[in-house]
Amino acid sequence: MRILIPVDGTPECEKPISLAQQLASAMDPEIYLLQVIEVPSGFSPLRSGDDIVRMTDDAVRYLGELTSRFELPEDRTRHVVREALNAATEITTFAEIEDIDLIIMASHSRSWLGRLTQGSVCSEVIRSGVCPVLCVPLPRAQAGHQHRGVLAAQR
Prior knowledge:
Elements: E1 2-7, H1 15-27, E2 30-38, H2 49-69, E3 77-84, H3 87-97, E4 102-107, H4 112-118, H5 121-128, E5 133-137, H6 140-143, E6 151-153
Parallel strand pairs: 1-2, 1-4, 2-3, 4-5
Antiparallel strand pairs: 5-6
């Protein structure tokens, strides 16, 4: 079994790693920690090539720290950093290429306006139908409003 855990560098996105740990002890899966660095299309005065290199280095370091902190099996855990215009598209593309069996990710809650303008990465990944997706809701204090359960989808 192959499990993909997309992370974005926030403490909230780390919540699903504990669930993956439990699955790892029962199933001995390969675990892929994926961080997507979203880069804007065209010219951006906010991000230069040096910024992208720094962000990539930070992401590589962060994924190593997660592996150590959560005591993930180093021989079965892969660290992947990708640059992309859209995180959801990159997650689903990676899952398809690597033949991922399950994606476990945090569901960042947004207000109705945020969903309208930015969408939801978790929702987009579910709609892709590339593999089953387990969206782990964030606690109320982190999410901004209450979730009542875990949203799961299977292709």
